[in-house]
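User: My collaborator sent over this chain with a note saying "see what the structure looks like." That's all I know about it. Can you take a look?
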Amino acid sequence: MQQTLFGSGTLGDDTPRQVQVYTDGGCDPNPGPGGWAAIIRWEQQEWVLSGNAPDTTNNRMELHAAAAALALLEGLLGPCQVELHTDSEYLRQGITTWVEGWATNGWRTTGRQPVKNQDLWRVLQRLTQVHQVAWHWLPGHTGHPLNERADQLATAARRALVGEPTPVPGVAEQPALTICVKAAALQPSQAAGWGAVVRQGSHARPLSGASKLATANAMLLHGAAEALRAVETPSRITVCSDADYLIKGASQWLYGWQARGWKTKDGKLVANRAEWEALLEAARPHQVSWLLAQGEAAPPDLEMAGRLAAAAAAGEHVDRSAG
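Assistant: Without extra context I'll predict from the sequence alone. Here is the result:
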């Protein structure tokens, strides 16, 4: 998932904030790798979100963009009066005309077929009960600056997923880095360690840490956050791992968890919530893409990260020369 988040702060009174939101999403091909983006403006603050998924559809990316924006607003500002602009008639028609009937019919269409993308529709329906949302349709690619910018951000998120990075408006001047991160756990002590390699060009910085009180998954999230915090200048960063838990969690599951109050689709509490929240905070200064790299697609730095993690879990020293 690509994520850029500018501005922050939770306000305490009950006055609804007047917020402008512009969203976009798409795939190439459809279905296939996709990206989404949302631009949120309130007074003098702006938040920009973008993300991707390796196997999705245009419609899912459009829905995801809107859900992510509204979920973020719920956490930051509370209930808002939102003017949401989209070039997706599927999104606008669905949320304003169809969704209540679907919910009444047990999330089935008038033809008694299961509603497609109902996981995202359920999230959106809940969020529209939190916020007062006016849904506006904008024709795509007609020159509206924020609509065009959201399209560029969504395209950049998709291209980053398939290895075709493109400049993102407003951050083209930022340095580009790669972080490879892994975790390891030992039996029977259950000590867990993390290792990361932060690379910019030919320069690599190895990092690692361990805990006897954490799981491998918690260490993986902690390691990714620590590596992001180690980058002091706002940057374009690709976080690479072979762990579905980190990459799919950050790029596909996270905003759904937030929208459901940090619960899974099954209503269970999300594990490692504190670590996920710390990872979000560490990513905020940067534009972050999340890349799943397994097998032959894994870069050499990922192997080094694994050695660092195993050594940290074992309490051993490892040669940290990453090349």
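A starting point for your reply to your collaborator: Residues 58-76 form the longest helix (19 residues).
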